[in-house]
Amino acid sequence: MNLTNELARQRNRNAAERTLMAWIRTCLSLISFGFGLDKIINALGRDTDNRLTRLGVTPIAMTFVLTGIVAMIAATLQHRRELKRLARDEYVYQEQPRLAAATASMVSLIGVMALVFLVLGSGR
């Protein structure tokens, strides 16, 4: 193996590490937001008995947390597969699942859920 190929592999390994770090930040943000949202709404809603607010926010918060957990697992698995492919003598490019698109779709669905609960809650 020549030096040029090994340097290219090292750049690809470094890029894979940076990508995983970006996913860690994204997933941590999703999990933290979901947890914080639930805690804030519960703290503010102690004196109110709005059942729709309690039932609406908790599933949305839980979905944020679940999306963060699932995306982190998928990103870690994708990272490990990429490192294994880079370790081979012959690197073969393979189309990978679009993890970012799947996560964006889940966040969009959470937004739709939130909108539905807001619309239902505004007709009190």
Q: Residue share in helices?
A: over 70%
Q: Quick one: biggest sheet? A: none
Structural class: mainly alpha
Order of helices and strands: HHH
Rounded Rg: 20 Å
How confident is the prediction overall: mean pLDDT?
83
The total domain count is 1
Alpha-carbon distance between the termini? 71 Å
Structural account:
- It is a single chain.
- 83% of the residues lie in helices and 0% in strands.
- The chain has 124 residues and is mainly alpha-helical.
- The radius of gyration is 20 Å and the shape is elongated.
Any key phrases for this structure?
mainly alpha; 3 helices; 83% helix; 0% strand
Secondary structure layout plus pairing:
Blueprint: H1 3-44, H2 51-87, H3 99-122
